[in-house]
Write a structure and sequence with these properties.
- The structure is a single chain.
- This protein has 588 residues and is an alpha/beta fold.
- It is 45% helix and 20% strand.
- The strands form four sheets. The protein has an eight-stranded mixed barrel, surrounded by four helices.
- A hairpin with a 2-residue loop joins strand 14 and strand 15.
- It starts with 14 loop residues before the first strand and ends with a helix.
């Protein structure tokens, strides 16, 4: 790590490494420095591991004991000064030795400073502060661009090499974004170099505002040590290193945010200028496994995006790029699908396990595009990610209620309509008023409408979720926990949740006949549901043996291919008078 003086980095954010064979000494030093405001420490009492830890953690300061078994402080100091990455790392020797020869030897080997034990807390704090201050000044001159105050090319190459090495060691992924301001040379030519400099500073600030967003990579980074670092290399060229990403989706998310942020106008020397950028993305290990390969591939992908007109980003990997282009095309078509009325609801019957009578249906959305039916697994996650699930969910609920009202007025037996809710819908402040409006406009009897919520939706802010659920219950409709048994929180809160129904996840039903564990789980869920006076619905029933087991355990309803796939409204209406085969008939 490097330190920069001024307002960007605080010296108290420095990482301090302590090597001492006595754990109590490490603890004392750390306590003293914590009192001085430092909070990032790397420690080891095994001197044989000191260099390995040093290479992995890259501290800003090393506090080193001299007299240690196996590998002495002299040996470590010699190795540090011989290491190309650490030859200038400040090292303060902490030792109880009063031998002048030892002190001189340590200084000759390159020790930055020398403190005798027992340590004085004030003196330790002063020496550490002065040493880090000097390092920060040196780092500023050597590693930082004076214009943008961002890490420069030298630090970029060092950090990238370290990140790739770490990724190889821990079998992790990383992404590298090469970013170039479109038509930057024209700004310099027409407005002058000072305007170009001001634009670079503003662009750097905007990019930093995006990467400082704490929510940006929350779902994509693999550890607390992960992060993103911005570098300024040449003129209008920046590089962004995403360390320890969980997937390439992180690079996509960052690139999209950057594109959006940079497009806004910026005031440069009294003029409103509009900035766009071309970006290339290379990922480790998909695109390449060496730092030089990643730089080359990210840069060539950036140049390709630039030649296509700029204001875009391009993956270096052909396979990943094709995947993303497919996603972009699908997103574009998805945005137009509602206007073109390409969505349709299909309905899967929910059948009484004992009588075989259809008691309800689950409304399932299908996309009948110009290119044919698109599977829900292809477009529902995309709708969630882009926020299109809100208007799509509104349409689904309105259409389901319209169809339910039509069936209710048909004179046939009244059945229940189940509609799935997404997390985004449920958390939308306008959701409750929307539900009231749709129920009122459709004129349905709300006791025949059930909202299905996944367990994952209930993992956070459970009390707030219960309040919303209680409001929905007060409107007369029912609530169901979908995919029950696959989440983590519902069991502890189940008795508090105002729900009417549990749906057993299809993954358990699928393996009922092969795995005793699944039979135990299903029977336990049914027993639990009965004790709580809840309706039990089993999903994904495809075999007679599965239905027989559900009947024996006392499940209420089932749905699945054994009776029917999801079908259009007219086909479902034709089935309403029909009774499905019940377990007693199967046995015969």
């Amino acid at each position: 790590m490097t330190l920069l003086i001024g307002n960007i980095y605080n010296l108290h954010d420095a990482t301090i490494m302590i090597v001492d064979d006595e754990p109590i000494n490490i603890e004392v030093v750390q306590i003293f420095l914590e009192d001085e405001g430092y909070h990032k420490f790397v420690t080891t009492d095994d001197s044989t591991q000191a260099m390995r830890v040093l290479e992995e953690k890259r501290p800003d300061l090393l506090l080193l004991d001299l007299m240690m078994p196996e590998v002495s402080g002299f040996d470590i100091l010699s190795a540090v000064r011989a290491h190309p990455k650490f030859k200038h790392l400040p090292v303060i020797i902490l030792t109880a030795s009063t031998d002048l020869v030892s002190k001189l030897k340590a200084l000759e080997l390159g020790a930055t400073d020398f403190l005798a034990k027992p340590l004085d807390q004030s003196e330790l704090g002063l020496r550490v502060r002065n040493t880090l201050g000097a390092k920060a000044y040196q780092d500023q001159l050597a590693y930082y661009d004076p214009l943008t105050r961002l890490p420069n090319r030298q630090l970029f190459l060092e950090d990238l090499a370290w990140a790739v090495k770490s990724a190889k060691r821990h079998d992790e992924q990383l992404a590298l974004l090469s970013i170039e301001i479109d038509h930057f040379d024209k700004v310099n030519d027409t407005l002058g170099l000072s305007a170009g400099d001001e634009m670079l500073r503003l662009v750097a600030q905007r990019i930093q505002s995006v990467i400082r967003d704490v929510d940006l990579l929350g779902h994509f980074l693999d550890s607390e040590d992960s992060g993103i670092t911005l570098f300024h290399l040449d003129a209008g060229v920046f590089f962004l290193l995403l360390d320890r990403t969980g997937s390439v989706d992180a690079a996509v998310l960052v690139a999209e945010r950057l594109m959006q942020t940079l497009r806004s106008s910026m005031l440069v020397e009294g003029r409103d200028l509009y900035v766009t950028a071309s970006m290339g993305i290379a990922t480790f290990p998909h695109s390449g496994e060496e730092p030089s390969d990643l730089v080359r591939l990210a840069s060539s992908a950036r140049d390709y995006a630039k030649k296509q007109g700029g204001n875009a980003f391009q993956f270096s990997s052909l396979a990943i790029n094709e995947m993303y282009e497919k996603r972009l095309r699908l997103e574009s078509r998805l945005r137009k699908a509602l206007e073109k009325e390409e969505f349709v609801l299909y309905y899967q019957p929910q059948v009484d396990v004992q009588t075989g009578a259809i008691e309800g249906v689950e409304a399932l959305v299908r996309w009948n595009s110009d290119e044919g039916f698109i599977p829900p697994n292809d477009f529902i996650p995309l709708a969630e990610e882009t926020g299109l699930i809100i208007p799509l969910g509104t349409w689904i609920l309105g259409e389901a209620c319209r169809q339910l009202k039509e069936w209710q007025e048909s004179g046939t037996k009244r059945i229940n309509m189940s509609v799935n809710l997404s997390v985004k819908q449920f958390e939308d402040p306008e959701f409750i008023p929307l539900v009231k409006r749709i129920i009122s406009n459709s004129g349905i009897d709300p006791q025949y409408l059930t909202f299905e919520l996944t367990e994952g939706l209930l993992l956070e802010d459970i009390d707030d979720k219960i309040e919303i659920m209680t409001t929905l219950k007060g409107m007369g409709l029912k609530l169901s926990i979908d995919d029950f048994g696959t989440g983590y929180s519902s069991l502890s809160y189940l008795r508090k949740l105002p729900v009417d129904e549990l749906k057993i996840d299809r993954s358990f039903i699928k393996e009922l006949t092969e795995h005793p564990d699944c039979r135990a789980i299903v029977s336990t869920i049914i027993f639990l549901g009965k004790k709580l006076d809840l309706l039990i619905v089993a999903e994904g029933v495809e075999k007679a043996e599965e239905l027989e087991f559900l009947n024996e355990m006392g499940s209420n309803l089932y749905q699945g291919f054994f009776f029917s796939r999801a079908i259009p409204a007219q086909e479902l209406f034709a089935l309403l008078p029909v009774r499905a085969a019940c377990p007693s008939q199967i046995a015969n």
